[in-house]
Specification:
Order of helices and strands: HH
Number of strands: 0
Radius of gyration: 12 Å
Structural class: mainly alpha
Strand content: under 5%
Helix content: over 70%
Distance between the termini: 19 Å
Largest sheet: none
Number of helices: 2
């Protein structure tokens, strides 16, 4: 889901640099979502 949303926002991973940025953003968003769920007891 997040990967697809990043594409809709204009991110791509055709080049190595783009791939690093996109996958880093993907990981950061998932980590933030997980932290939020943990802090709010939604686990």
């Amino acid at each position: 889901l997040i990967h697809g949303l990043l594409h809709l926002l204009g991110h791509d991973h055709a080049e190595p640099g783009e791939k690093r940025v996109m996958f880093r953003l993907n990981d950061e968003i998932i980590a933030a979502w997980d932290d939020h769920r943990e802090q709010t007891g939604q686990r």
